[in-house]
Amino acid sequence: MKTNWYERAVVYQIYPFSFLDNNNDGWGDIEGIISKLDYIKDLGVTAIWFSPLYKSPDYDYGYDIADYRAIDEKFGTMADFDRLLAECHKRDLKVIMDMVLNHTSMEHPWFKKALESPDSPYRDYYIIRKGKQEKGKLLPPTNWASTFTGSAWERIGDSDEFYLHLFCREQPDLNWENPKVREEIIAILKFWLDKGVDGFRFDVFNMFSKVYPFQDDHQKGTFQKGGQYFVDGPRMHEFLKELNEKALSLYDSYTVGESYHPSKENALEYVRRDNHELDSIFNFAHLAADNIADKKFFWKPFNLRQFKDGLFQPQKDNYGLGWNTLVLENHDNPRSVSRFGIDTKNYRYEAATMLATITYLGFGIPYIYMGQEVGLTNCPFDNIEEMKDPVSHFVYDLMTSYGMPKKLAFNFIKYGARDHARVPMAWNDSVNGGFNEGALPWQKVNPNYRQINVEKDLKSDKSIYRYFQKLLKLKKESEAAIYGKLEEYAHDDRQLIAYSRQYEDEGLFILANFSKRPAVYEAPAELVWSGVLLNNYPELENKSGTLKLKPYQAVVLQLAQPTNKK
User: Fold this and answer.
1) b/e string for 488-509 if b means 16 or more Cβ within 10 A?
2) Domain 5-104+179-377+447-468 carries which CATH code?
3) CATH of the domain spanning 109-164, picked from 3.40.1390.10, 3.40.50.1100, 3.30.70.980, 3.90.400.10
4) Are 525 and 478 within 8 A, CB to CB?
């Protein structure tokens, strides 16, 4: 029976490659994760989301799965995973697995069998089409573009056929129209649920359904050709309902979907509780407030109003209908304290705690990415060769192919690269930041690990981790922080973020200065508070309802007289 345990959850994401290398081979591993479960539990977390642990050739570092029922040997064995699951549950930590179902690895047995013969039944597990002849030249079936590598079609040998890959060419898309594919997927979900896994994060789920018959995209001004034919496709809701009916609803499970630019209407339908599709999806619109058209590599001056629109609108849209998520960082985004025009050099503690306060006390489930709880920053990469992410290399190659100087192209890449989040975790100031005992890590170590690491933060008088503990305790224990309706204030202010959460007789007011300049807030007369619940500074300057905030100051006030009910 569903218990909706996720409503009070706090989720911590681990990217296994980079968390902790216990056996000193350069890769993070399951034993390393087990050794730090108490550290995670003590933070105030109730669930852990593991980026893929499955067998993979790592063209996309875990997101190209070669065997959905096997643990990759660099991380450990299935017995190691079973022990990890047991150790998590022993600490009342739920386990959320990453599930990549839009595509497999090209090294998956299904794809290998599909290429063995044109008559193979596995041929229909994927999307394979004949190319088209134009002026004696064989062209891809459509002009669709991949997110990572130019054309979304890859030719099969010297034949006249192509397979679809909306991401890397090593990640062929699955054919969800084939009922046998859906049966395989349902069996995979049940395999992990039977083990005791508590839920799944579905990677780019809203690309499962495509529009048939395939055709060229003639829209002008679109960044990715073909999107109208493979995002929020016509059978998306049907497919999700089938997964729910035949697998997910049979367990006390939770699902969160990573959606790819969904329409506002579909975003709500996916999580509407009475639709029985997903429990939540990620909303990232606020993370586009410092880049152009949600393309992280293309920096623009930070726009606080855009940030507020992106952060609060999904909370308002989902309230009373479905559940929301609250995110600042993940494996696909740079570090939050290194973004948004923040003065990281002088105010890292204040900015990190401010960002967490304004985000996690909203309506939804807090998602914390490993290292965020101690304010890890972006890595000062020196050249493109130090970056491992195929997206970084694709965008760099694309820019330089159009004549952009290599140095300029690299500077673009550095700002928004996913690589920043994937460098090894900094545990202490020993070799490689304590990630291992000195073996060459799979990815560059951030050279500031001697100044910014877990051990140093825990000993600091201004510990970000300790602040997170207080914040998450408030989040979990306050009915208003979980179920309260959100009302925003000062929306047009260029420095301040202000909102209330009110539920029955409890009310919270969250106020923050999103700048390095002092700010003043004239509180409306209806906001009467009885005390300060949380403050990232020692004091709050208040004169007759006029609050003066220091750089990046964030406060949480207990409302004495809630202005509305549920």
Assistant:
1) bbbeebebbbbbbbbbeebbbb
2) 3.20.20.80
3) 3.90.400.10
4) no
Q: Residue 54 corresponds to which tokens in the numbers above? A: 């499955």
Q: pLDDT digit string (tens) for 222-281?
A: 768 999 999 999 999 999 999 999 999 999 999 999 998 888 999 999 999 999 999 999
Query: The tokens 């090593």 sit on which residue?
Result: 170
Superfamily of domain 480-559: Golgi alpha-mannosidase II (2.60.40.1180)
Instruction: Tell me the catalytic residues.
Output: 203, 258
> Do β-strands 295-299 and 291-292 pair in parallel, antiparallel, or remain unpaired?
antiparallel
Residues 113-150 as b/e (b if ≥16 CB within 10 A, e otherwise) read ebbeeeeeebbebbbbbebeeeeeeeebbbebbbbbbe
Quickly list DSSP for 207-268.
GS---SS------SS-SSTTHHHHSS-TTHHHHHHHHHHHTGGGTT-EEEE--SS--HHHHH
Which residues on neighbouring strands pair with residue 155, listed in sequence order?
162
**pLDDT 10s digits, 516-552:** 999 999 999 888 999 999 999 999 999 988 999 999 9
Compute the radius of gyration of the chain from its Cα atoms.
Answer: 24
Q: In what order do the strands lie in the sheet with 94-99?
A: 280-281, 254-257, 199-202, 94-99, 47-50, 11-14, 365-369, 325-327
What single letter denotes the amino acid at residue 319?
Y
Name the residue ranges covered by the structural domains of the chain: 5-104+179-377+447-468, 109-164, 480-559
The residues that bridge with 161 in the sheet, in sequence order, are: 130
